Amino acid sequence: MLSRSQSLGSCLIALALLLFAGSAAAQDVSPRCEAAMDRAAGHYSKCLLSADASYARHEKATKLENRQARCETRFERRTSRAFSRYGADACPSSDLVAAMEDRTVTYAEGIATEAGGTPAPSLLYVQNGTGGTLSETT
Fold first, then answer.
1. Which terminus of the chain, N or C, has less C-beta within 10 A?
2. In sequence order, what DSSP letters do the residues of 6-43 get, joined into one string?
3. Neighbours of 35 (CB within 10 A)
4. Mean pLDDT across the chain, nearest whole number?
5. Residues 70 and 79: beta-carbon distance below 8 Å
6. HSE toward the beta carbon, residue 8, CA cutoff 13 A
């Protein structure tokens, strides 16, 4: 039987693959680079969830920070490797890669929060009627 964090990690990886697979095609990204980016995001989410699972068991904040930093370094190494193998023209822009990284962190944090028994916050931004600025969240 899979542990709870492994099961959640597998779900997050599948979600990341589905989200990132469709978004990259709009820029004429090569399928090989897209696959490399999907794998990088999947490994990153699994690494972050493993770090959170370790923290949940041992509650050592220093180790959590070190593991999260290692996860980030590995993600950057994998995406850089994809850029060097397939070329910058065949891969998503660096802005999209940064967005992928941020989204992966956000989803992993939400999964870890919910695994601890607390619902993850769901934010809805409300536009005010006077001028198109975002005024508050609900």
1. N
2. HHHHHHHHHHHHHHHHHHHGGGT--HHHHHHHHHHHHH
3. 17
4. 81
5. no
6. 20
Structural domain including 77 reads 4-137
Distance CA 131, CA 117 (A): 39
pLDDT tens per residue across span 67-90 = 999 999 999 999 999 999 999 999
Helix axes 4-24, 31-58, angle to 10 degrees: 150
Is residue 17 over pLDDT 60? no
Task: Give the count of domains, the chain.
Answer: 1
Helix, strand, coil percentages in the chain from 3-state DSSP, rounded to 5? 75, 5, 20
Q: What phi and psi values does residue 123 have, to the nearest 5 degrees?
A: -100, 140
Tokens 């964090």 locate to: 5
pTM: 0.68
SS3 assignment, position 87 = coil
- The tokens describing 25, both together, are 């095609």
